[in-house]
C-alpha cells in the first residue's frame, strides 16, 4: 500500500508538495491513455462550445470564466482546447485529437476507468496516511500538454479556484501518465509557499441573471529563481497542497506530457466556499473517497 513514511510526511508538510515515483504501473498508465483515446475519438463539441483554455487572468475571465460550457462542467465530462487551434469560425486548424488542452471536471464520477483509479486502494491508503478522515473528490482532469504548443500554466495556487474555510483542506493528486521533463513541461514549485495564505480567489459573479466569474486580489509577481523543477517518470504521483505555488512551462518539445489529476477535500469541519466556480449538485454531490 502507498503509505507515507514519517520522513515523507514531514517533507510534504515542509515543502507543500511531494513526489512518489512508481505509484502507478506502466500498464495502469496505458489503460488510462487508451480510455482517454476512446473519449477523444467520440468527442462531439458544438462550435459554440469550443473554448480555448488559458490560465492567464484576462483570458480566463473572457473565455472559460463567462461560458456556461465551462462553468457547468463540474459534474460532467467536457473538452477544452489549446489556444490557436481554431479558425475565426471555430473550425479546427489541427487534427482534433492534437487540439485538446484538457478534459474535465468529473471523469472520476462518470468514467469507470478513472473512477477505479481515483478510488483505488493505493489512493485510499495514501489519503489515510495523510490523516484525511472524510475526504471527498471535488474535481478531476486529464491534461494533455500537446507537443510543440501545449500551453504554459502560470504560477498559481489551487485554492484560488477551490477555496475552503479553514484553508489547508484541499489536496491535489497529480499522476504522470508519460515522463514529465524539463523539455515537455514538468511542474515547478516554490517549496514552503503553502504557508502564506491565498493571494487571489476566483469567485462566482452575476451579470444580471447570467453567471460569470471575477477575481478577488491579485497574484504576486513571483521570482523565477524561487521555483524548483520537478521532472518525474511515468507512473509518478505528486502530492500538491492546495496553497503551494506551482506552474508549468509551454511544451515546445515533440513529446506530449499526459497527466491525470484530481483534488480531494477533507470534508470534516470544512466549509466549501459558496463563491467557488465549481459547486456540488443534487445530481452529483462530492463523492466520498473511501468506499
Keywords:
291 residues, alpha+beta, Jelly Rolls, 7-stranded antiparallel beta sheet, 4-stranded antiparallel beta sheet, 15 strands, Phytyl_CoA_dOase-like
Query: Could you say which overall geometry the principal axes of the C-alpha atoms support?
Result: globular
Let me know the number of strands.
15
CATH class categorisation: Mainly Beta
CATH architecture: Sandwich
Topology diagram in text:
Layout: H1 6-15, E1 17-20, H2 26-41, H3 57-62, H4 68-71, E2 77-81, E3 100-105, H5 107-110, H6 112-118, H7 121-129, E4 135-143, E5 153-156, E6 164-165, E7 170-176, E8 187-189, E9 200-207, E10 210-217, E11 228-230, E12 237-241, E13 246-248, E14 259-266, E15 271-272
Antiparallel strand pairs: 1-12, 2-3, 3-4, 4-14, 5-13, 6-15, 7-12, 7-14, 8-11, 8-13, 9-10
Protein name: Phytanoyl-CoA dioxygenase domain-containing protein 1
InterPro entries: Phytyl_CoA_dOase-like
Keywords: Dioxygenase, Iron, Metal-binding, Oxidoreductase
Describe the structure.
The protein is α+β, with helices and mostly antiparallel strands and 291 residues long. It is globular, with a radius of gyration of 18 Å. The strands form four sheets. The protein has a seven-stranded antiparallel β-sheet. It is built from seven helices and 15 strands. It has one domain: Jelly Rolls, CATH 2.60.120.620. The mean pLDDT is 93.
Amino acid at each position: 500500500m502507498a503509505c507515507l513514511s514519517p520522513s515523507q510526511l514531514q517533507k510534504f508538510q515542509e515543502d507543500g508538495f511531494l513526489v512518489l515515483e512508481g505509484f502507478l504501473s506502466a500498464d495502469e498508465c496505458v489503460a488510462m491513455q487508451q480510455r482517454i483515446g476512446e473519449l477523444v475519438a467520440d468527442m462531439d463539441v458544438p462550435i459554440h462550445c469550443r473554448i480555448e483554455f488559458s490560465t492567464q487572468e484576462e483570458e480566463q475571465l473572457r473565455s472559460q470564466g463567462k461560458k456556461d460550457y465551462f462553468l457547468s462542467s463540474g459534474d460532467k465530462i467536457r473538452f477544452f482546447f489549446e489556444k490557436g487551434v481554431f479558425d475565426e469560425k471555430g473550425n479546427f486548424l489541427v487534427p482534433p485529437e492534437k487540439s485538446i488542452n484538457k478534459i474535465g471536471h468529473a471523469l472520476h464520477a462518470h468514467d469507470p476507468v478513472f473512477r477505479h483509479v481515483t478510488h483505488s486502494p493505493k489512493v485510499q491508503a495514501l489519503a489515510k496516511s495523510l490523516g484525511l478522515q472524510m475526504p471527498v473528490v471535488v474535481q478531476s482532469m486529464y491534461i494533455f500538454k500537446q507537443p510543440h504548443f501545449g500551453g504554459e500554466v502560470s504560477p498559481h495556487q489551487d485554492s484560488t479556484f477551490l477555496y475552503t474555510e479553514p484553508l489547508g483542506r484541499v489536496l491535489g493528486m497529480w499522476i504522470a501518465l508519460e515522463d514529465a521533463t524539463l523539455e515537455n513541461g514538468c511542474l515547478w514549485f516554490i517549496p514552503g509557499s503553502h504557508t502564506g495564505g491565498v493571494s487571489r480567489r476566483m469567485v462566482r459573479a452575476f451579470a444580471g441573471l447570467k453567471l460569470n466569474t471575477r477575481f478577488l486580489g491579485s497574484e504576486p509577481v513571483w521570482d523565477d529563481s524561487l521555483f524548483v523543477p520537478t521532472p518525474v517518470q511515468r507512473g509518478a504521483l505528486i502530492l500538491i497542497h492546495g496553497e503551494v505555488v506551482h506552474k508549468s512551462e509551454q511544451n515546445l518539445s515533440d513529446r506530449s506530457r499526459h497527466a491525470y489529476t484530481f483534488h480531494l477535500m477533507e470534508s470534516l469541519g470544512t466549509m466549501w466556499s459558496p463563491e467557488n466556480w465549481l459547486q456540488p449538485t443534487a445530481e452529483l454531490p462530492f463523492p466520498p473517497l473511501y468506499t
